[in-house]
Amino acid sequence: MATDLKLSQNRPYQRLLVAKVSNELSSAISVVALPLAIVAVTQDVILAGAVVAITSGALVISQALTGAAVDRWGASFSLRISSALQALGWLLVLVGIFQTSVFLMFFGALIAGAASGIDGPAEQRLMKLVVAPAQMGRASAVGQGREAAAELLGGPSAGWLFAIQTHIPFLAQIVLNTLAAFATPKVREKVATQGGRYWVELAEGFKHVFADGALRGIALISGIANLAMALTPLTLIFEYQRSGIPAPLIGTLSTFFGAGVILGAFLAGWMVERFSLGVLGIVALSGFALAQAAIAFGYQNFWFTCAIFTLSAVLLPPFNASVVTYMNVTSDEQILGRVTSATGVPGMILMPIGSLLAGLLFEWSGAAPALYVSAIAAMIAAIYMGAEPQLRRMPKLSELCPDQ
Q1: Considering the domain boundaries, does residue 1 fall inside one?
Q2: Of 148, 176, 206, 380, which residue has the fewest beta carbons closer than 10 angstroms?
Q3: Of the candidates 86, 110, 87, the residue with the CA atom closest to the CA atom of residue 38
């Protein structure tokens, strides 16, 4: 199914982008809207942090367990089901808001979070099916740019929609996830044999990742870095909400981060052709760590924080595009769902802890301690990237894909 057509003429790839961006925009809205809605209903930031933590945990568990299911069911079917279940989850949240039922809000967010864990394995498998290996790096960079645009719109959209009515952001999410379900391309694919034991098939993905030193290291680094990714934005949302900053303005935080990612996506094609994955990783994570430290000491200034968010994101897309390409090129199509799960799970394992810490530390001590923890985690990730030889020596994409 993979074709050498230009990406702009590759219809299945374009449909996949629509599905990815729609689901990503829905997720970006939820990052701001869900904690704001829970605090609005309960006036309890610890509860808001706990709900976000549990839903993030559901995503991690789902991604850990569903990679083999994607390989069995097929990527198209899996992504359609995932998108539909996310729409159902946000519908339950919507009903919970109208009935002031925290249980319904929590249950709906749990369903949506668990369903979104299927997205990553399904999307990566579809990418391998519809994009030729030589175009994978550029396709990944374009995809990240589009997803960053969704992030750019998601935060402020959530803020503005929330300011109109508490339930409006979740209505938008229902529409977006439904669009993703219909946009997902149908492709012919070989599915994994269903005669084997599910747990044995699932374990194959983890064995592949941990047998590859580069993938193993990336997974571990992502886990550490994602603690900061979860901890910092939620802490800042709580801090700025308590400080009286309007919800639409709070939503622009993710806009500035998304702007940096979009700029980085434009640079990605040029950078991945000239620098090794190891160099990109060291530079990107070092910049991210310095940004987290700057935020920890300057978060009282809202616009300074927004500017730092932009700078911290610029170098992430080239590194991420290289990582995605490495995973796709070095993994067989029939186990790619499981490999994506295994790679992603360690990368997200600390996200629920980060969300929970955001609520607890903010309630007990304010924003500063949580942001210090975030900065330390980011520094550890950067140091590990530079200290681990198998990561530091990762090759250029041209060495992985000679025809690229």
Answers
A1: no
A2: 380
A3: 110
